[in-house]
Amino acid sequence: MAFQTLCKQKYLAEGESVPFLIDGAEVLVLWPDGGQPRAFVGRCPHEGQSLVNNSDFNGRILVCTVHGWVFNGRTGEGLSPTGCRLREFPLRLTDDGRVEIDLVAA
User: Fold this and answer.
1) The dihedral of CA 104, 53, 51, 5: what is its sign?
2) Tens-digit pLDDT profile for residues 73-101
């Protein structure tokens, strides 16, 4: 795996989403309530709409505000409609407070 630094952990907070543009890829980091941060491709699988600019996250679910598709914030699994999911990037938190992502593995 080819992990690279995304940000410092202090820039993420439980219950929030944080958008990133790294190496030309839109990435949306979700930190679900009671869970761990997860990094997803920042595009809706429906029509490729940007989730970085067109989404709402309430700490549990992510909604694409363009067409109303709904995703589980812990897994990226499609809730409405079912049978789809957000592609996930491996993400890790380091002992020195960095958040690292592997863009190649997605």
Assistant:
1) positive
2) 999 999 999 999 999 999 999 999 999 99
